[in-house]
Amino acid sequence: APTASPTAAPTAAPTAAPTAAPTLAQSTSWPTVAPYLVEVTLALSTAMDGVSPSTFNEDDSLVAAFEAATLATLPALDAIKNVVAAAPSRRRRLEDATSAVVSFDGVVVIADGASDADAAGAAILDSVTSDLGNAAESGAFLAEMQTAAAAISSDAAAVYAAVTVDAGATADLLADATVSIIVATPAPTPAPAPTA
């Protein structure tokens, strides 16, 4: 008698072999600390004849020329601020009505200088006061002011053309210069994110 055609036995549907679950690589890096920033502020003054305090303070171009000349003369400074002129503390001579003591703060920022900030501040003070005193005596500081003024306006140039720097009085003022130091505590930077 005929027999039924043989049929293949059904096989189970193939299944993919399981793979291990992915793991995150663990970072061994700790958060890093940014360098300390040390801001050194020098309280400085210079004496000038030929311009009154009120004339200087009320004319932004005169202040701007002074700032530019000071930064050109003292490249160690990162910035200057709080520039203001006042009458001399005592009358040096009859022309004191057109004499002014210009005071300002010179700022130097040091990256990662917290380990010896006091010594760094003292060294900067010595260097800057020496440079400014020498420039006042040689005439270089006045020349920088006149050059800066001429680049700003003819009116500013005319004022500075009549100005002289009193090197002796400036030296006395620089002997009393002071320094203050601020250490900025940095925030830690985050650790790198884990990678797959």
Describe what you observe in this structure.
Helix content is 36%, strand content 24%. It has 196 residues and is α+β, with helices and mostly antiparallel strands. Helix 3 (117-138) runs antiparallel to helix 6 and helix 4 (140-152) runs antiparallel to helix 5.
Characteristic terms for this protein:
196 residues; alpha+beta; five-stranded antiparallel sheet; two-stranded antiparallel ribbon; 6 helices; 7 strands; elongated
What is this structure, in a nutshell?
The chain is an alpha+beta fold. It is 36% helix and 24% strand.
Question: Layout of SSEs?
Answer:
Elements: E1 32-33, E2 37-49, H1 53-57, H2 60-73, E3 79-86, E4 99-111, H3 117-138, H4 140-152, H5 154-161, E5 164-165, H6 167-175, E6 178-184, E7 188-189
Antiparallel strand pairs: 1-7, 2-4, 2-5, 2-6, 3-4
**Biggest pleated-sheet summary:** 5 strands, antiparallel
Which structural class best describes the helix and strand composition? alpha+beta
Rounded radius of gyration (Å): 35 Å
Mean pLDDT: 84
